[in-house]
């Protein structure tokens, strides 16, 4: 049965949810304070790399990330087909590189448990590593090769999602500056600063780093905080980089447009998105230890975005504990691009009262409320 749904927030998570819901026939309205994709979404490096980024244990968060990676081949095709907008989706594979023999044991441990989840992981060194990535520094003694890991060009992906939403009939109200939730327990009514009124049967909270502003309204602890992530990019020129290269210090992602994205330097700066010399220097001071040619060049572009981090590092996904028609999908930290397909499918299942494709108890929105 078709329902009227308000999605509060037009970042990659809100757009993905709106796209999935509209594909299933729901009447969806996105409410966005500024512009769709204007915060963390469009500023991301676009890595789809759960094996590289999650090395500790196979909990339900890892499962969420892995399922989303596996959704991407079909998902990105659907977004392109509906929107008519192309964007880079590259199954480049990745190399999780290390410098010390002691770290090789950690990679083997990671390989052991990840293989149980179907990871096609290969520990490479010597000639094989040189063959995969010829420009790597000699000080790198080995790497875990993950052929499944991929990346997207985030700005174009977000534009395509927005285009797909519009093509599906999603109403998008942008540059609202602020919204006031007048009622939500029995009926949902939201009023913009300019006086526009929006009503719906269900509401999805996908407002990222700004979600904490809603604590008093929903009588719920929502510990989502903005983390500034600073990134820079290089022109590759004659140099060729084949894979996502991930290390304990950060990552490098080669893009089809001939650039290399280097991230990310993180700090707590409230809602500031300015770029600092200290933040970028943290990247430029070590990246030549991965690719030596970077020591002789400067980044041509620097930028920053806000990442919505929760108190325990897991997103909030699920129903309000006292109002099932209010659904949360926020706090995805640095995994918003990766988790957009699976979050959309989970929320769509909740809205239609179906079984979610993955367990979500770990992400319960009420877990911080005493």
Task: Describe the fold and architecture.
With 370 residues, the chain is of the alpha+beta class. The protein folds into two domains: 4-76 and 154-224 and 312-363, 3-Layer(bba) Sandwich (FAD/NAD(P)-binding domain), CATH 3.50.50; 89-148 and 227-307, 2-Layer Sandwich (D-Amino Acid Oxidase, Chain A, domain 2), CATH 3.30.9.10. It is built from nine helices and 20 strands. The protein has helices spanning 12-23, 50-53, 60-83, 101-115, 126-132, 154-167, 215-218, 277-284, 336-351, and strands at 4-8, 27-31, 47-48, 89-90, 94-98, 122-124, 142-146, 150-152, 171-173, 179-183, 188-192, 197-200, 202-205, 224-235, 244-247, 250-254, 259-267, 301-310, 316-320, 323-330. It has an eight-stranded mixed β-sheet with strand order 6-7-5-15-16-17-14-18, sandwiched between helices. α1 links the parallel β1 (4-8) and β2 (27-31). The radius of gyration is 21 Å and the shape is globular. 46% of the residues are buried. The mean pLDDT is 95.
Across the major sheet, the strand order is 6-7-5-15-16-17-14-18
**CATH homologous superfamily title of the largest domain:** FAD/NAD(P)-binding domain
**Strand percent estimate:** 25-35%
The percent range for helix content is 25-40%
In the CATH scheme, what's the topology name of the largest domain?
A: FAD/NAD(P)-binding domain
- Mean of all residue-level pLDDT scores: 95
Largest β sheet strand count, sense and barrel closure: 8 strands, mixed
Q: H/E element string? A: EHEEHHEEHEHEEHEEEEEHEEEEHEEEH
What global shape is seen? globular
Assign the CATH class of the largest domain: Alpha Beta
Count every beta strand, where a strand is a DSSP E run of 2 or more residues: 20
Distance separating the two termini = 35 Å
CATH architecture verdict of the largest domain? 3-Layer(bba) Sandwich
The Rg value, from CA coordinates, equals 21 Å
């Amino acid at each position: 049965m078709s329902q009227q749904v308000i999605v509060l927030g037009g970042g990659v998570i809100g757009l993905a949810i709106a796209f999935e819901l509209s594909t299933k026939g729901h009447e969806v309205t996105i409410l966005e304070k500024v512009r769709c994709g204007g915060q963390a979404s469009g500023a991301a490096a676009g890595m789809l790399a759960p094996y590289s980024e999650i090395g500790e244990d196979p909990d339900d968060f890892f499962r969420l990330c892995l399922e989303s990676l596996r959704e991407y081949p079909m998902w990105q095709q659907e977004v392109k087909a509906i929107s008519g907008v192309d964007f880079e989706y590259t199954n480049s594979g990745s190399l999780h590189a290390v410098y010390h023999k002691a770290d090789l044991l950690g990679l083997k441990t990671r390989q052991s448990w990840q293989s149980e989840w179907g990871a096609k992981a290969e520990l490479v060194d010597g000639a094989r590593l040189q063959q995969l990535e010829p420009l790597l520094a000699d000080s790198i003694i080995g790497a875990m090769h993950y052929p499944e890991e991929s990346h997207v060009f985030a700005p174009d992906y977000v534009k395509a999602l927005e285009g797909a939403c519009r093509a599906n009939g999603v109403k998008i109200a942008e540059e609202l500056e602020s919204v006031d939730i007048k009622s939500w327990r029995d009926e949902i009514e939201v009023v913009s600063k300019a006086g526009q009124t929006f009503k719906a049967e269900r509401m999805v909270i996908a407002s990222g780093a700004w979600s904490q502003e809603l604590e008093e309204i929903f009588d719920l602890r929502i510990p989502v905080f903005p983390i500034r992530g600073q990134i820079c990019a290089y022109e590759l020129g004659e140099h060729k980089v084949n894979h996502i290269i991930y290390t304990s210090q950060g990552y490098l992602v080669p893009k089809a447009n001939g650039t290399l994205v280097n991230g990310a330097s993180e700090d707590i700066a409230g809602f500031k998105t300015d770029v600092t010399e200290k933040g970028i220097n943290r990247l430029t001071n070590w990246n030549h230890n991965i690719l030596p040619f970077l020591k002789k060049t400067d980044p041509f572009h620097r930028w920053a975005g806000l990442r919505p981090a929760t108190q325990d590092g897991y997103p909030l996904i699920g129903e309000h504990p006292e109002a099932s028609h209010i659904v949360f999908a926020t706090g995805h930290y640095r995994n918003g691009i990766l988790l957009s397909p699976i979050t959309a499918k989970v929320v769509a299942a909740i809205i239609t009262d179906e079984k979610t494709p993955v367990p979500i108890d770990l992400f319960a929105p009420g877990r911080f409320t005493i």
